[in-house]
Design goal:
By secondary structure, the protein is of the alpha+beta class. It has a single domain, classed as 2,3-Dihydroxybiphenyl 1,2-Dioxygenase, domain 1 (Roll). It contains five helices and 19 strands. It has a nine-stranded mixed β-sheet, with helices on one face. A hairpin with a 5-residue loop joins strand 3 and strand 4.
Length: 285
Amino acid sequence: MKFQRPPHTYVGHTHLLVQDLQRSLAFYQDIIGFSVLEEQTNQITLTAEGQTALLTIEQPDEVTAKEPRRAGLYHFAILLPTRADLARALVHLLKSGYPLQGASDHLVSEAIYLADPDGNGIEIYRDRDDHDWQWQGDQVEMTTAPLDAEGLLTETEGAEWNGLPKGTVMGHIHLHVASLQEAQTFYCDGLGFNVVAEYGSQALFISTGGYHHHIGLNVWNGIGAPTPSQNSVGVKWFQLVFPTEEARSTALKGIEAVGGSVTVEGDTFITSDPSGTHIHLVVHH
């Protein structure tokens, strides 16, 4: 989990809009394994280890269903500490009967895919040791091959699933965008991320510090995909966590240099990418 802490800039707390708060709470507790950190009238903040906010689910007034072919969330990705943790999660998911959307070996990682009751995409994954990742220059080798589920299921180490384990973090976020070129300018030239994998004119993976990706970007919902309506299901905002005040300061100047804008609420600086996805820029504590 070394890529989700300083000196890297990484994805932190993510805030989702949902249609039915209690339905979503049951899913995120019983199926995914979060526990409640803080509960308010229309939103609940969830945690893995009881201290760190990883996910907030909110049911806004006049919420509307997830809109098709929009920019915004493709999936958020929960990173588990070990392969045994992923094995236990897979056993639990299979026993639950909840529908899975896929399971893949990406060379750098092994991943399970599903969606919450509103269609918000979720990846649950574990990383292979970064010493085993293969690089061609500054591009990391990734693929999408079938997960060796049978092999994985032998790795539970005899332990039962007991919710998300201590050490679970938000590993990355993957977004639909309207333009890959505009997104690259904003995230790389503006915020200081580096391109680590390109898939033609369809997708781009970017990171800091040599991670396989902190952010995925794609145009699979169509070039020019519109921003979702304000109260529709999806991502309300996600955090980018900077290692130092100086690093955030550099990013704020970078956003300005590429024509972006920033507002301030308390200790949080807020910006939006060119596709309208809101980002909270915070400093690691």
